[in-house]
Amino acid sequence: MRAPAFWQAPRTDQPRAWRDRCAMLTLWPLSLLMRLLVRLRQGLYLSGMLKRHAAPVLVVVVGNVVAGGGGKTPTVIALVEHLRARGLKPGVISRGYGRRKSADGGDCREVRSDSPVAEVGDEPALVRRRTQVPVFVARRRIDAARALLAAYPQVNILLSDDGLQHLALARDIEICVFGDLGLGNGLLLPAGPLREPWPRYVDLVLHTGQQPAFTGHAARRALANTASDASGRVVALDSLRGTLVAVAGTAQPQAFFEMLQARGLVLARTDALPDHAGPSDYEHWLTTLREEFRSGPVTVLCTEKDAAKLWAVCPEALAVPLVFDLPPAFLNEFDRLLHAAFSAHLSSTYTD
Fold it and tell me: Using only C-alpha atoms, what is the Rg of the chain?
């Protein structure tokens, strides 16, 4: 069997199964089956055999075609701020990946400032904390959309954090986000990182990594100059001394560690937890850390996404915010699409 061209230069930051030639050959048939199933599902929605549900306001989906993180949540947060600056009233919906059912057994719920992260998800909790806009989570995004609009009727545009493949929700604008992984080896799961074949039509492509893999807009991401603990105490990064330990439960933890080191911080230890790690994972990690560093104080650094869970067991941990800037050309194109979508929405409303 001849090796496809994309096997000639595999990236070292992919899981081994996506880089190893034998592993990819073994999984390739399953990848082809995945492609067939994805195309079949897309065809069912396009034909109308599977129903798409439309919200009464504009919907912007920020997602990706690659498994794992790519910068979707920072993009949503930046777009919320942009929309508010334009005088709009945005809300955010999400599945809330990794959350468990609440005590009452309900699936759809509002994300409040005091919501248990385990019940709403770490990323929705971060969006709520950073933006203070209405945020609802549900397995079916349309359920989250309807509940949000019923509770906050002033909201006039919805952002869906993830959901590019959630075709049951109709959308007006699609934004596809890529990190440094790019397309990986170009294969669909499980032989590669793709959730669906690429290229596929989207309205905007945004690269959030340091090495854009192909044409699209490039965002700028960097660490803030300060970090804060659970009490709100703010500390300058440049002032940190002593034993520093960094932990990250994100899809690309190494990127966080490298940004800290690029700021001149000497890290005694870096620990990568699973993406969307649960509170018990942080508790176990902290116990292990304290056993190792019994002799002296340790300063723990984490991402804002980790903070919601880590602060429950380590309130003195310092969360380092991410400064995320969308390029002007991207925002100009987004505004053009937004204007056209609003015009079409108003036109259809008057027609109906």
Answer: 21
